[in-house]
Amino acid sequence: MLLRETILCAATPTTGPGAIAIHDLQTGSTLASFKQTNAAPHSTAVVLSQDGQGGFLLAAQHDKSILNVYNFQKDQVNLKIVLPEKLSCIAIDHSGEFCAGGTSQGRIYLWEVASGVLFNSWDAHYRQVTVLRFTHDGVALLSGSEDSGVGVWSVSRLLDDDMTSDLPLPYCVLSDHTLPVTDIACGIGAFPNCRVLSSSVDHSVKLWDISSQTLLTTFQFPQPISCLAWDLTERMFFAASKDGSIHQMNLFRQKEDKSGGHVIEAIGGAGVTDIIRVGDEEQTKAQKRRLISVGEPVVSITISLTSALLLAGTATGIIHIYDIPSHQLLRSLSTHKGFSITHLATMLKPPDLIGHVSLSIGAGHSSESSIPVKPVAPFQRMRDAKSREAHDITMILPVQDNVSSFFAPHTEHKLMLLYGMIYRSTKTKGNVYTAEALLRDHDFFVRPVGSAGQDAVSLQSKVNELETEVARLREQLGKAKGVNDMMWETVVQKVVGHGKEKESDKQGAGAEDERRRKRGRTDS
């Protein structure tokens, strides 16, 4: 099944090794587990399988200067990369070309994944870098720090050979926070025509417009915000705190116009002076309805690909799944109880996942062939001009046949990724993945989360009801056929009998006339 949404989470214990696990979103079952990792928040990154190449995972160890590399086809560490120093956070662009790492001293490193070349390293902040994010098109890198600043860096400037000896200058600095920055969320759109959310210990979440380099709105909360999740359509975002509360903030609201109708208008956008406060004492009923109380410290949150579910990972290792429209708790996964969920994301199940490797898209393909993994080279610890000028990149060209349709292409939008797969799967000729299978998988993908056991029981009860209904209808059909046959025989008998009576009457009348004629002739 291609359209199967999964949960990717990193579980870190207080002592000892942790793991990165992949769970099925519908059933909660564990599909894969990658051992021997101990990653802090914002220290796990993933590249999806695409363009005929298998994806991989990166996990920076918070207690040592080591970066673990995993691929979906193996549950053990595929490569251990020795780093120049311990990394406090990492980020990788969506295409998997460049990886950035931040340190506790405020330094940022930028590597090319395929060659391992260190393109740049610079002092971006004067305190620890807490979070790194690439924009959706990979053109810019955003960094948040304990110095309360958010730096926006142009990747092309960081890769420019003519600027290697100069200190990189940021595209802009977003500096309205007063305490350490905890998380950054990038909106959809090509840089710089995109918006950015940043959260901080100062109880605020700020909405920025990158093209104008201005602050649009400040959302003030009663608790420090630890992590963010932004809806792909940018209609709302969720802000979670360590006290177990998750606030839903709608960026649009319905307003009554002068004619008595209702219009939708955006919230905020007035600039530095525009502050929307969410206070405990001043909360309205609507604000209380938008509050989710988890009851445990929330470390990471994410929104499902269908934007229907909110997933919250806690410091106790529980993953709670909420229905966004109703805020109802649908399920809690306690597989990692006793750990801390430092990373949480949703994605389609990788086609090259452990035990599920399959290239049999068309007839004749071997299902046991391994998918080539996107190459990852050991990262350089020091900048080397010679290796930079003459570096070699290992590249696997995408297969130009039906196999390429098995992997979703890279897009800016997760849902575009999904629908791109749907389109190409249905349009590719000779593809075993038929339209019927696509619709069946899509139904499984978008149906609400429920208990597998309850689904099986309800399905069996429905089957029994349908079988009883079919038997009853067959019995009624038999009775109707019997009545119809009886009516038909009765009508036919009456028609035939009536015809015979008429014929006998005619024959009797003819014989009487003949006798009368004969009598007349005799009398004459």
TrEMBL record:
Span of the signal peptide: none
Highest taxon in the source lineage: Eukaryota
Stretches the record annotates as Disordered: 495-524
Regions annotated as coiled coil: 456-483
UniProt-listed SUPFAM superfamilies: WD40 repeat-like (SSF50978)
Cell location: Nucleus
Gene3D superfamilies: YVTN repeat-like/Quinoprotein amine dehydrogenase
One Pfam family this sequence matches: WD40
GO cellular component terms given for this protein: nuclear pre-replicative complex; rixosome complex
InterPro entries cross-referenced by the UniProt entry: WD40/YVTN_repeat-like_dom_sf, WD40_repeat_CS, WD40_repeat_dom_sf, WD40_rpt, WDR18/Ipi3/RID3
Any one of the GO BP annotations: rRNA processing
Keyword annotations: Coiled coil, Nucleus, Repeat, rRNA processing, WD repeat
WD repeat segments: 122-156, 196-218
SMART domains given in the database record: WD40
Task performed by this protein: Component of the RIX1 complex required for processing of ITS2 sequences from 35S pre-rRNA.
Family according to the record: Belongs to the WD repeat IPI3/WDR18 family.
Known partners and oligomeric status: Component of the RIX1 complex, composed of IPI1, RIX1/IPI2 and IPI3 in a 1:2:2 stoichiometry. The complex interacts (via RIX1) with MDN1 (via its hexameric AAA ATPase ring) and the pre-60S ribosome particles.
Protein name: Pre-rRNA-processing protein IPI3
Organism per entry: Mycena venus
